[in-house]
Amino acid sequence: MPDQNELRYTAEHEWVLVEGTVATIGITAYAAAQLGDIVYLDLPDAGTEIAGGAVVGEIESTKSVGELFAPVDGTVLEKNSAVEDAPELVNSDPLGAGWLLKVEFSELPELLSLAEYDALIGG
Amino acid sequence: MTDVDSPSAPRYSPLHAVHEAAGASFTDFAGWQMPVRYSSDLAEHHAVRTAAGLFDLSHMAEFDVTGAEAAAFLDHALAGRLSATSIGQAKYSLLLAPEGGIIDDVVVYRRGDEHFLVVANASNRAPVAAALTERADGFDVTLDDVSDDLALVAVQGPAARGILERTDGFEAPDLADLGYYRSADAVFQGEPALLARTGYTGEDGFEIYLAPERATDFWNAVSAAGAGDGLVPAGLASRDTLRLEAGMPLYGHELWLETQPVQAGLGRVPVMAKESFVGRDALERGPGAGAPVLVGLVGEGRRAARAGYQIFAPVGEAADEAAGESTGEDAAPIGLVTSGALSPTLGHPIAMAYVDPAYAEPGTELTVDIRGTRLAYRTTALPFYRRKKD
What we know:
The complex is a heterodimer.
Chain A: E1 8-9, E2 14-19, E3 22-27, H1 29-35, E4 38-42, E5 49-50, E6 55-61, E7 65-69, E8 74-79, H2 81-85, H3 88-92, E9 101-105, H4 114-120
Antiparallel strand pairs in A: 1-2, 2-3, 3-9, 4-6, 5-8, 6-7, 8-9
Chain B: E1 11-12, H1 16-21, E2 25-29, E3 32-37, H2 41-50, E4 52-56, E5 61-66, H3 70-77, E6 90-96, E7 102-112, E8 115-120, H4 125-135, E9 142-145, E10 151-156, H5 160-165, E11 170-171, E12 183-188, E13 191-196, E14 205-210, H6 212-226, E15 231-233, H7 236-245, H8 280-285, E16 293-299, E17 310-312, H9 317-321, E18 335-342, E19 349-355, E20 365-370, E21 373-380
Parallel strand pairs in B: 1-3, 4-15
Antiparallel strand pairs in B: 2-3, 4-10, 5-8, 5-9, 6-7, 7-8, 10-14, 11-12, 12-13, 13-14, 16-19, 16-21, 17-18, 17-20, 18-19, 20-21
Helix pairs in contact in B: 2-7
């Protein structure tokens, strides 16, 4: 599990781990807890071009549907098929085994630090 | 869940501190801050199906009805024949508007010859109070809104009976002899309580009405008695998926002021043999030809049809219905989903929906627009889940 201090965050409750030109994306523990038990994920396939800010996937819990926003412009390198088979991984390990997408990006937009994100969720 | 005018200040259950200590997440329900889940709503759901769950339902509204004409009054005010119930019996009934629509669905407990307890939905406390008060005119009856004087705790699941039997300080008649939809006087810590074999989960279980001052001790005593049986506190999220699997309607989803009982599959609740009751004339006229009816829907995969999603006839059939017009994907919706979820017990999507009666026959293939994607669903008889009787 990555150090949450090293991650960047979005106001839409995603975390982003930047390694070179690859961004690994997931949702925060706060977002997973707000949704409740996640039972279904719809994620874009490898090769999909995504635009920062656009809805690229859906995360369904028993009670509600959350949208996954692309935090960066880029191309999906890989989706985490393990979470499609076992969506509960997003609840149990949102920053680790519950990652969602790896995206090749060209430019990194401005993202939030942990302190800024914590302030946003009132933590 | 439902949109209601909430008073500006949220209301709290007498068990609020207990829920906070247990780490509950809260949701607004009819102006009350109630536990939506403690940790995992799926785990809470499964616990009720396989062991037991403990629910706080203290937000529910209760009305005491007493007096020489209590039974006659309820026969007039409600759609069922409450005068025919025996002492200790519980009865599901409906409070109808003069136009035949449903003001609320209620459970009525007969406490004595001249004493009934009417339990209504929290969201409908005010309209139920208003309707009962107005209808009491001319009857020798006293109405008391005792909602604030009663806490309500439910213990639901196959282990519920054993847990209550072992609950410290709780004295009740032999639970094995208490039939479904029967109630009995009980005692907790020397104070009177009402014990009922009722619930809203599709499992065996009990509901206990008692003084708010005793609620925390009772909750803790039940928790201690059930610790070894897999009893967990359960929130409103699991309550909703449990009642959905059991095919039980929820006011504000399946039941509305615009819904007649027959549309909701509750045609047997009103006793038309009664000479008069509020709403009877309207029920006699019926909701009108083509009025939508409640059905169950089942789907495949894991994407749930949820409340508010539109239902369509399969392409081609809609065109036939429209007498040759080539409508296809542009055809008008033939129904609306009112509740839906991926069923935790069954593993596939289930929903309740109102559809054009031409599409209500069990087995009818339909599609539901799930956020822009049409997915196949099939109508089915309710309930989706029925517990195995022991």
